[in-house]
Write a structure and sequence with these properties.
- The complex is a heterodimer.
- The longest helix of chain A has 34 residues.
- Chain A has eleven helices and no strands.
- In chain A, 76% of the residues lie in helices and 0% in strands.
- Chain A folds into two domains: 34 residues; 202 residues, MetI-like fold.
- Chain B is α+β, with helices and mostly antiparallel strands.
- Chain B has two domains: 227 residues, 3-Layer(aba) Sandwich (Rossmann fold), CATH 3.40.50; 121 residues, Beta Barrel (OB fold (Dihydrolipoamide Acetyltransferase, E2P)), CATH 2.40.50.
- In chain B, 23% of the residues lie in helices and 35% in strands.
- In chain B, the strands form four sheets. Chain B has a six-stranded mixed beta sheet with strand order 6-7-8-3-9-10, sandwiched between helices. A five-stranded antiparallel beta sheet of chain B has the order 13-12-11-14-20.
- In chain B, a hairpin with a 3-residue loop joins β11 and β12.
- The longest helix of chain B is centred in the middle third of the chain and has 18 residues.
- The chains are: A mainly alpha, B alpha+beta.
- At the A-B interface, α7 and α8 of A face α2 of B.
Chain lengths: 267, 365
């Protein structure tokens, strides 16, 4: 009779090896971000590691430059609008794909999820080609529409997951108790799938806020987003403002995921 | 809540196909006002589909559902005003017990004081008085079942539909809830259409039982009718344990039927029925009708000499398998205090009265 052995039973030597290995993996994953954070408090004029001295001057630089602030504002507006559009559309699509019984349902699911599989650059080129004709390049709505394509699969996947785990009889019960289709959905189904919708919305926000590739094509000169501004910052300036912005973006992401996790637990 | 009255439910030629498969075929059934009717059958017999057609969640392929003289097939589920209790209870997990029970009243825009009063009445009816503020997750399975019942009753529907409501409860709780459901149904004078695969539950609860198999109705009758005079071999087999033998009608008289056992010269005496000599029939004998004794005489119209093959101790009874030279019978003999089971190999006489022999015409296989 063999017994499965826990990691702790491997003996002290192997245990030490395991710890070192784990530490290396974590370092590989988090290391670059930590370097960027350190460099953002640089006192020097160039991106350097380790920094020769520490200061907040590049944060001050960011907040004093309108081109940086405008880019941040554009990114924020585009991400918020993308989140709204993608969450509403994605939730409706998930409802249809999970509950609908129509021919071609699997094909439709695959089509909705293609942006996850197709390289982003392909999506970006395709979107650019179409939007150039429609004069949507360089507009906030052009970016929102492009980002919605990227964000939709995340909403559909998250909402589909909770829908599949939901007992349909609960909605039927609401119907039998006198609720019409709309009231049964808003009073019963919606509250029950809210965790999936929230998770989908968060992913949609991040997908839009983080996107560089589609934005490079669609931003034009008038609707520059933060990643696009950072990209040109790296190319032409090489000063640590980019590191300061990166650090703030890391903070925003951590806060957003933390907030959603809190919302989910407080049920 | 005693003022609610049961409605009449009529199912007329109700059918439902799923592609090539007929889930329910031309089902006719009436639930009289205040009557408790059970759809009984194995899984896949179409009983839940039938119930869902009455509730409005499944659209019939043909036929009609008539409530108190009014066809409801064209009505959406929320306009049918029927109480439905689901097997999984289908409670709203994000609401308190009170809010669950208040839901149908709020849908009907009842006034706040009335909601409070009626929810309290409904919770008292199912003996959950003080638990209104609880969350659903804090309740036991039995308590959740009671909430589901209160929620389905609070708006005083004239008909209650129940889909295997006790399926998830353990034996003892189930027995207790059966009595409770019966008490509530009688108190309110409700019409109930109940679905179960548990024949014992059907016998205990029902005024009438409708037995379904492969989408068809095999028999509708009181528990006694269904148990003592099964219309088909399926019913005989599904409701209770039974000995099934094959034979040919030999002779008919006003009060007797004589049947020759297939593959044997033995003649069995059976209850009268509309049969003619030469007809191929199935003979059903309930195990509890068979007496087993060591004395050669025995009593009853049918007697066979046999040997005990197996004896099973059931507590209140002993279940014997006895083998004669041309047939094997199962007998359930009530056990008095200190009775000891006969050993395997004991020579016995098994006997049963003609009246306990139900005869069913053999239908084409």
């Amino acid at each position: 009779m063999s017994r499965a052995r826990g990691w702790g039973e491997l003996g002290p030597a192997w245990n030490a090896v395991l710890w070192v290995f784990t530490a290396l993996v974590v370092l590989l994953l988090v290391g670059p971000s930590l370097t960027v954070i350190a460099m953002s408090f640089n006192s020097a004029d160039l991106l350097q590691f380790p920094p020769p001295g520490y200061s907040l001057r590049w944060y001050a630089h960011f907040f004093s430059r309108t081109e940086w602030l405008t880019a941040a504002w554009n990114s924020f507006i585009v991400a918020v609008l993308t989140t709204l559009v993608a969450t509403v559309l994605g939730t409706m699509a998930a409802l249809g794909l999970v509950r609908g019984r129509f021919p071609g349902r699997h094909l439709a699911t695959a089509v909705f999820l293609t942006p996850l599989v197709v390289p982003v650059i392909v999506t970006a080129v395709a979107v650019y080609g179409l939007y150039a004709k429609l004069r949507l390049v360089g507009t906030v709505w052009g970016l929102v529409m492009g980002h919605t394509v990227l964000a939709l699969p995340f909403v559909i996947i998250n909402v589909s997951a909770v829908l599949q785990g939901m007992d349909w009889r609960i909605e039927q019960a609401a119907r039998s108790l006198g609720a019409g289709p709309l009231r049964a959905f808003t009073l019963v189904t919606l509250p029950l799938i809210r965790p999936g919708i929230l998770a989908g919305a968060l992913f949609a926000f991040v997908a839009s806020f983080d996107d560089l590739v589609v934005a490079l094509f669609v931003s034009g000169t008038r609707a520059v987003t933060l990643p696009v501004r950072m990209w040109s910052g790296i190319q032409f300036e090489l000063n640590p403002t980019v590191a300061a912005v990166s650090t703030m973006l890391i903070l925003v992401s951590v806060l957003a995921f933390g907030a959603v996790e809190l919302l989910r637990r407080r049920r | 809540m005693a003022e609610s009255h049961g409605a009449e439910v009529k199912l007329l030629g109700l059918s439902r196909d799923y592609g090539e498969i007929a889930a329910v075929r031309e089902l006719d059934l009436t639930v009289a006002p205040g009557e408790f009717v059970t759809l009984l059958g194995p899984s896949g017999s179409g009983k839940t589909t039938t119930l869902m057609m009455v509730a409005g969640f499944v659209q019939p392929s043909a036929g009609d559902v008539v409530l108190d003289g009014r066809s409801v097939v064209a009505l959406a589920p929320h306009r049918r005003n029927l109480g439905v209790v689901f097997q999984s209870y289908a409670l709203f997990p994000h609401m308190s017990v009170f809010d669950n029970v208040a839901f149908p009243l709020r849908m009907r825009r009842a006034a706040v004081p009335e909601i409070r009063r009626r929810v309290e009445d409904a919770l008292a009816l199912v003996q959950l008085g003080p638990l209104g503020a609880r969350r659903i997750q804090q309740l036991s399975g039995g308590q959740q079942q009671r909430v589901a019942l209160a929620r389905a009753l609070v708006f005083r529907p004239p008909v209650l539909l129940m889909d295997e409501p006790l399926g998830a409860l353990d034996r003892k709780l189930r027995d207790q809830m059966q009595l409770e459901i019966k008490r509530i149904q009688r108190t309110l004078g409700l019409s109930v259409l109940y679905v179960t695969h548990d024949q014992e539950e059907a016998l205990i609860l029902s005024d009438r039982i409708a037995i379904m198999h492969e989408g068809r109705l095999h028999q509708v009758g009181t528990p006694a009718e269904v148990y003592d005079r099964p219309a088909t071999t399926f019913v005989a087999d599904f409701v209770g344990e039974s000995n099934m033998l094959s034979g040919v009608v030999e002779k008919t008289t006003a009060e007797r039927l004589t049947i020759r056992l297939r593959g044997s010269a033995r003649l069995l005496e059976g209850r009268e029925g509309a049969f003619a000599p030469g007809q191929v029939v199935r003979v059903m004998i309930r195990p509890e009708a068979v007496a087993v004794g060591v004395d050669a005489a025995g009593d009853g119209d049918n007697r066979i000499q046999a040997v005990v093959e197996d004896a099973l101790y059931l507590g209140q009874a002993i279940r014997y398998v006895v083998r004669g030279d041309d047939l094997t019978l199962v007998a359930r003999v009530p056990r008095k205090a200190d009775d000891i089971a006969l050993r395997a190999g004991t020579r016995v006489t098994a006997s049963w009265p003609a009246g306990a022999t139900a005869v069913i015409l053999e239908t084409a296989p």
